[in-house]
Design goal:
10 helices; alpha/beta; 610 residues; seven-stranded antiparallel β-sheet; eight-stranded parallel β-sheet; globular; binds the ligand [NH3+][C@H]1C[C@H](O)[C@@H](O)[C@@H]1CO
Length: 610
């Protein structure tokens, strides 16, 4: 194969081309969001149900139950954990939390713990609660005393710091709250526990550092939030409601999310916005658009309150505090100046309800465009099917399919009309439906790489793309959608083969070249920025492929090539996390040179233009 590269760029590579799609599918709570305790505030559970205590367990005979407190800590958190220390109790009696499939105990960290307590009846007790991090077998790694008084019959929040003495290799650890025998016979109510490790950029109520750093290393340009299905709700009542996710944690009710578990909403809209700033990304924010996952579309005459909610949500992000109560709320939470926002998505995957989207889009996009003429709105039906008014200028396409499909469809966008319509490949990934594979494989990742060469060749209309889903907790029972780009457990983060494909793509303008054979097995894309020519070569075949490049200008003879390749079925897994990683080496090139692409490989040849 000979590839002649043009000297004149045909179009810019939009700065937004490579970003991240996020929604809470076992990826926010217990994942990116750094809170270590599961079911920390007994949100959305039924008092008295055994399930209401999920992730909590008694210690040494503590008698615990979830009650609807007669004097709740807040209207958002009506439930409390009630502990009765049996009379005659001995030893340390209380309860513990198992975390999200474990708790990482790290002696280099200081953990911030807190909870609310009150005595439902005045008691003469005065003593300490002991909070601790301990192994499943009771080995204490860190503990602290918190004075507790039986005269405290109204809620008070108390705090402690925990610094472990060691870093056990096992994450099968618990956070415990216990009392000695002097507390025997007492009943104490508890509400909203918090246990945070250090967070990314020290952000309060922030993100887990190790996961954040892996995501940051991708240099993502945008962050799509809050979903995906998890925006939509099984009904209008359980949709993601932006204003329930901001403000003091004690005022956030949480919600039954769309992935079969309760979302704390501790990772809420303001946390997302600070996260985007900390990661140097712009938010691609979705607003709920009247469709819920039970298949219900609200009738047009019921949309007005939700359109207003969307206007408020946008004003919370970018409004002027003197001009809107939602923006004033943001200011009251400590953020006077607006956040940057350009793209707002109306709903999610509305091709499932495209008939009602005709009026839902008309009313949401019509009103929001009038209110925010500077914003760009993304439609979520199939392009031009149905015809929408106002005419969308952006569409969000999703595709999940086989490795072969991705390798065979790298020209997917080449035939799209150039008619001032721009495309966001908001979700794409090889899913191994038949083999039900938990982790990406090299064959799938190289298929994705082939497809991605089409993004760059068509970046005049493809303005953004993100693999989906982004993150997954690999613990047994902790995941629902496979595969994902980055995996984690309580103490580790794992980079899939597809992560490395996402990681390697960069460039600021596209240099046209000889077109690959759409039905072939070798694909390429040449981009440049001010200092470097990046030549991406994808070989989807199981044999090596020679590609001769003819560059339009002389270049230095020494270049580097970064190659991701391996057995077609190879995956990075927790037991072999670095089985397949990119290797970078020097190669000699010239204005014309031959490159032998290994079987199943993505190669990025970087040529210095200085
Ligand atoms: N069903 C997929 C499509 C939806 O938008 C996401 O929530 C799901 C996982 O990425």
């Amino acid at each position: 194969t000979t590839v002649v590269v043009n000297s004149t760029a045909s179009h810019a590579i939009p700065s937004t081309l490579y970003g991240q799609m996020f929604e809470d599918i076992n990826s926010g709570d217990g994942g990116l969001y750094a809170e270590l305790l599961q079911n920390r505030a007994f949100q959305q559970v039924t008092p008295g149900d055994a399930t209401a205590l999920y992730a909590w367990a008694a210690v040494n005979g503590g008698n615990i139950t979830v009650i609807a407190d007669s004097d709740p800590v807040s209207s958002a958190l009506p439930n409390a954990l009630q502990l009765t220390i049996p009379s005659g109790a001995s030893g340390s009696v209380g309860f513990g939390n198992e975390g999200y499939y474990g708790i990482n105990v790290n002696s280099s960290w200081t953990y911030n713990a807190s909870f609310y307590y009150r005595f439902p009846e005045v008691s003469d007790f005065s003593g300490d609660a002991t909070v601790a991090l301990q192994s499943a077998s009771g080995e204490i790694y860190a503990s602290a005393q918190i004075p507790v008084s039986g005269s405290q019959t109204t809620w008070t929040q108390v705090y402690a710091q925990l610094t472990p003495s060691t870093s056990p290799s096992s994450t099968a650890n618990n956070f415990t709250v216990t009392f000695d025998s002097s507390a025997a016979g007492n009943t104490i109510n508890f509400a909203m526990f918090l246990l945070f490790p250090p967070t990314f950029k020290d952000r309060a109520n922030g993100m887990r550092i190790d996961v954040a750093e892996v995501l940051y290393s991708m240099k993502p340009s945008f962050f799509r939030l809050p979903g995906g299905n998890n925006l939509e709700g099984q009904s209008a009542a359980t949709r993601w409601i932006w204003n329930n996710t901001v403000g003091d944690l004690v005022d956030r009710p949480g919600r039954v999310g769309d992935w079969s578990y309760i979302n704390t909403d501790g990772l809420g809209l303001l946390e997302y916005l600070y996260w985007c700033e900390d990661m140097e990304m712009e938010p691609f924010m979705a607003v709920w658009a009247g469709y819920s996952l039970d298949g219900t579309s609200l009738p047009e005459d019921e949309l007005a309150p939700y359109i207003q909610a969307a206007i408020d949500q946008i004003n919370f992000v970018t409004g002027d505090p003197s001009g809107s109560s939602a923006a004033a709320l943001r200011a009251s939470l400590g953020r006077e100046e607006p956040f940057s926002l350009t793209y707002v998505e109306i709903g999610n995957e509305d091709f499932v309800a495209s008939e009602s989207y005709i009026y839902r889009w008309r009313d949401f996009a019509g009103n929001l465009t009038a209110a925010f003429p500077q914003l760009k709105f993304i439609a979520t039906t199939d392009p031009f099917n149905p015809i929408l008014d106002p005419t969308p200028q952006q569409y969000d396409n999703h595709v999940y399919s086989s490795p072969d499909w991705f390798a065979e469809n790298s020209f997917y966008y080449d035939d799209f009309e150039r008619n001032c319509t721009y495309y966001f490949q908001g979700e794409y990934a090889v899913t191994y439906a038949d083999e039900n594979l938990m982790y990406p494989t090299i064959q799938g990742s190289i298929g994705e790489a082939a497809y991605m060469t089409g993004f760059e060749r068509n970046a005049d209309i493809v303005f953004a793309a993100s693999y989906a889903p982004l993150l997954m907790n690999v613990a047994d029972g902790a995941y629902q959608w496979i595969p994902n780009l980055v995996e984690f457990d309580a103490a580790n983060v794992y980079k899939s083969t597809s992560f490395y494909v996402q990681h390697l793509n960069r460039g600021t303008e596209y240099l046209p070249s000889t077109l690959p054979d759409p039905s072939g097995t070798v694909f390429w894309s040449v981009t440049s920025d001010s200092s470097t020519l990046a030549i991406k070569v994808v070989n989807y075949a199981n044999t090596t492929e020679d590609v001769t490049f003819q560059l339009p200008f002389a270049v230095a003879s020494s270049a580097t090539v970064t190659v991701l390749t391996g057995d077609s079925t190879a995956s990075n897994t927790p037991t072999d996390p670095n089985l397949v990683t990119p290797t970078t080496s020097a190669i000699t090139i010239g204005q014309a040179f031959n490159y032998t692409a290994p079987a199943y490989s993505l190669s990025v040849i970087n040529v210095s233009l200085s």
